[in-house]
Design a protein that fits this description.
4-stranded antiparallel β-sheet, alpha/beta, Aspartate Aminotransferase, domain 1, Aspartate Aminotransferase, domain 2
Length: 393
């Protein structure tokens, strides 16, 4: 669904809230150009040659320092999506149980389905994965190999796993022996509040994933995984069989930029303040245009607002009308293994709206268009058939 929606982004007049795309005008083109020139001038042969499968040491050491992980535990991947795929190959046999959030990140669901895993959805709410529900199922006999979470600014809901639930999840991993996959693409995009404790700081049964896609540029296709020492060699062998290595040129470009702390501090400050303004603009416009028909939390970071139509609007049906009105979003049903009750009610009445890509004027217009088409799609709550309403005035 998202793949098809992204094809429509360039359609004339289309305002897309669908993709998780960074703001194009904030991509650091000049700084990437500078890094490219320096890398080619100083390390041209290395940058254009075959490279170690686990990645270039310049980038691995930078990532390891940030995550407080030994260099030998770091593997550089072609985007964090590849890391999810590699984990599936190394840890999941056909039929193995993998716990995912409901709703949850579609790319992870696809990777685990491709590995023929038995996906077990655990509900998530405003405080993230419901670890109490997970514990109940573990005590009843559920034995997952992996528990996958986007613990900070979850995709699609934007929720952050609470401190108590982080400690609880870590304790459950220790007791029941599963591996936590802590996917963290959005953690650096916080514009309110303090950074929560990473799950890897609470237990060593964690693989932490990260990416340069949301903070620098997705086109570089650079991600990483910090894995326990017993797992990293298997991930390296799986990656070697897949693509030999991630581009050393783009790795060295990312390393050059990440080690420029002055630039990164200024760049991230601009990104965060821009995204905060856009999040506030979109949420205010949706509330103004749709009123009591919706519920939506105020984002504190990340890229997404999770909008619940409390009147039960089927957002998959709404999408058809919205596209005709040149506004796009992702319906909630795209983020679950089956359409069932989840975060704040049935996910079929939810919308994931990305506030990062469009400017404030376009976000306001997108909300207006969505309100216009949704008013025509609103479920009938009168209990009367259309012909009865016509007769009775």
């Amino acid at each position: 669904m998202i793949r098809d929606l992204l094809r429509l982004v360039d359609r004339p007049g289309m305002l897309s809230l669908a993709g998780g795309l960074p703001a194009p005008e904030l991509l650091p083109v000049a700084r990437i150009d500078q890094a490219s020139r320096r890398v080619l001038a100083e390390s041209g042969a290395r940058a254009l040659q075959y490279a170690p499968t686990e990645g270039m040491d310049e980038l691995r050491s930078r990532v390891g320092a940030d995550l407080q992980a030994p260099l030998d535990n770091i593997i550089i991947t072609t985007g964090s999506q590849q890391a999810i795929d590699l984990l599936s190959r190394c840890l999941v046999d056909p039929g193995d149980v993998v716990v995912v959030e409901s709703p949850g990140y579609l790319g992870a669901l696809q990777a685990f389905i491709a590995a023929d895993a038995d996906l077990h959805a655990v509900p998530a709410d405003g405080d993230g994965l419901c670890t109490e529900a997970l514990e109940s199922q573990l005590r009843a006999g559920l034995r997952p190999r992996l528990v996958y979470v986007v613990a900070t600014f979850q995709n699609p809901s934007g929720a952050t796993l609470s401190p108590d639930r982080r400690r609880h999840l870590a304790a459950l991993a220790e007791e029941f022996g599963f591996v936590i996959v802590e996917d963290d693409p959005y953690g650096e995009l916080r514009f309110r509040g303090d950074r929560p404790t990473r799950l890897r700081e609470l237990t060593d049964r964690v693989v932490t994933l990260g990416t340069a896609s949301k903070t620098i540029a997705p086109g570089l296709r650079v991600g990483w995984a910090a894995a326990p020492g017993w797992l990293q060699p298997a991930l390296v062998r799986a990656k070697q069989a897949t693509d030999l290595h991630t581009s050393p040129l783009t790795q060295l470009i990312v390393a050059d930029i990440l080690t420029d702390h002055t630039f990164m501090a200024a760049h991230l400050s601009t990104v965060r303040s821009t995204y905060q303004r856009r999040a506030e603009t979109l949420v205010a416009a949706l509330r103004s245009e749709l009123g009591t028909r919706i519920e939506v939390a105020d984002p504190t970071g990340g890229m997404f607002a999770w909008v619940h139509f409390v009147d039960g609007t089927d957002t998959s049906e709404l999408l058809v009308a919205a596209l005709a009105a040149n506004v796009a979003f992702v319906p909630g049903s795209a983020f679950v293994t089956s359409v069932k009750a989840g975060f704040g009610g049935p996910v079929s009445s939810h919308v994931r709206a990305c506030f990062a890509t469009l400017d404030e004027e376009a976000l306001t217009e997108a909300a207006r268009r969505l309100a216009t088409v949704s008013s025509r799609q609103a479920p009938d709550r009168s209990g009367l058939a259309p012909t009865d309403r016509a007769v009775r005035g």
